[in-house]
Design the sequence.
């Protein structure tokens, strides 16, 4: 082979290898699926509706994790340049975490029925003090400061069956007065018990998420008592009935608890709610249904559009019909909104926040972080980590990237389960871990 031709061949081959390297930066298609052994900070995945396997392509299995004590030397792993420290420990099922305008950290200890207030100086790796802000609550979960902004007057708390609020001024670590009932009744009972809440940027709307009462509404009659046509005429598109009425929904209220309306439907369990600072849009982290196979259907994170229907229980990820409910609501097939970012099935996304701090590198600003609690309905364990959702010009790229991993001990055991994420006053990321009774702090110290 003559030298020019040889050089040209080398250049072409090199270009092909570079292209392959670029393509492999984000795992797509079959390569996007994996388990905890392939997790590592910086690994990116992108799932699309075109990647979905057929229902029953793999056998559904019950595979709950066994929680073990954290090995003394074990710490979660973050990307290079980040340092992980144990911000708080000894908490009783810490779930939702929110940061007050003055920097105090409020956390719902759901099993203990209380909200704790932790104080720490900016930059401190560990909380300096802890107090009980409010107690005697019924499985508290969502927490929000109202009105939004630097000087809130109330702390709102979503219990599993109602919403209450407490008088508050910046710096209070104990409620200044008794609970005032804002929403006296939320759908409760069996099924998903978590209730998150968030306020619109203008403070005029309070959003409350209510998960479904079962996997695919098995107990719901095939049609409402008054007939389907009459029900549809009076309810939001895709609304469920019977024991599922006002469940698998995001509900909206006035801040005083009045004016209840259904904001969006068909969200099986929107466990985490937040408002995107850049756009003011509402976002949900959603747990999808079980028993269709290891990789079906994906969980997801999505902006929530007013009046939108996201499929549950009849459809998933657009107009994919659940075969167990085939033909029951074919009229809804063209009405299903496809979510923005798909997450590997049974990862169990719970908490979400947008990063607007100044501590992390500039590339992180405007991105979202999501806590994946890990689920039981998969042969090979997945989830049990915090992922980053890249955004460009305020819109998600559809990818997600491993950010904080290492909570899995082996194929059967875990020592931590991330639940929620929040940005501390100094720009560090806080992560609640209900299995370990802890809050982890991830700070950037440079490379």
Sequence:
């Amino acid at each position: 082979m003559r030298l020019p031709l040889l050089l040209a061949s080398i250049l072409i081959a090199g270009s092909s290898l570079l292209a392959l390297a670029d393509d492999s930066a984000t795992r797509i298609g079959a390569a996007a699926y994996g388990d905890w052994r392939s997790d590592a900070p910086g690994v990116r995945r992108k799932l699309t509706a075109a990647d979905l396997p057929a229902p029953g392509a793999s056998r559904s299995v019950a595979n709950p994790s066994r929680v073990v004590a954290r090995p003394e030397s074990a710490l979660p792993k973050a990307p290079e340049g980040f340092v992980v420290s144990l911000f708080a420990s000894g908490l009783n099922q810490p779930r939702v975490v929110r940061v007050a305008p003055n920097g105090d950290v409020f956390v719902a200890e759901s099993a203990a029925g209380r909200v704790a207030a932790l104080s720490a100086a900016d930059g401190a790796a560990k909380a300096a003090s802890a107090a009980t802000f409010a107690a005697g609550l019924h499985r508290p979960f969502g927490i929000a400061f109202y009105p939004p902004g630097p000087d809130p007057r109330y702390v709102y708390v979503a219990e599993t069956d109602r919403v209450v609020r407490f008088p508050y001024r910046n710096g209070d670590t104990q409620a200044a007065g008794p609970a005032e009932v804002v929403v006296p009744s939320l759908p409760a009972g069996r099924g998903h018990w978590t209730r998150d809440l968030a306020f619109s940027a203008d403070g005029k709307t309070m959003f409350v998420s209510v998960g479904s009462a079962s996997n695919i509404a098995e107990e719901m009659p095939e049609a409402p008592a008054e007939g389907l046509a009459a029900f549809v005429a009076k309810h939001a598109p895709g609304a469920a009935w019977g024991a599922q009425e006002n469940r698998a929904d995001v509900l909206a209220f006035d801040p005083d608890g009045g004016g209840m309306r259904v904001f969006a439907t068909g969200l099986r369990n929107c466990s985490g709610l937040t408002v995107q600072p850049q756009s003011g849009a509402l976002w949900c982290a959603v747990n999808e249904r079980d028993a269709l196979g290891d990789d079906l259907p994906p969980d997801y994170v999505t902006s929530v559009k007013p009046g939108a229907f996201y499929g549950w229980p009849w459809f998933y990820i657009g107009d994919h019909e659940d075969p167990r409910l085939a033909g029951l609501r074919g009229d809804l097939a063209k009405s299903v909104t496809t979510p923005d970012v798909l997450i590997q099935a049974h990862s169990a996304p719970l908490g979400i926040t947008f990063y607007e701090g100044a501590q992390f590198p500039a590339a992180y600003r405007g991105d979202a972080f999501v806590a994946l609690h890990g689920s039981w309905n998969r042969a090979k364990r997945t989830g049990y980590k915090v992922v980053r959702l890249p955004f460009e010009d305020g819109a998600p790229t559809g990818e997600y990237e491993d950010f904080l991993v290492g909570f899995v001990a082996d194929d059967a055991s875990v020592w931590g389960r991330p639940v929620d994420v929040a940005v501390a006053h100094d720009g560090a990321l806080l992560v609640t871990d209900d299995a370990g009774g802890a809050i982890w702090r991830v700070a950037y110290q440079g490379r």
In short: Residues 195 and 293 are 27 Å apart (CA to CA).
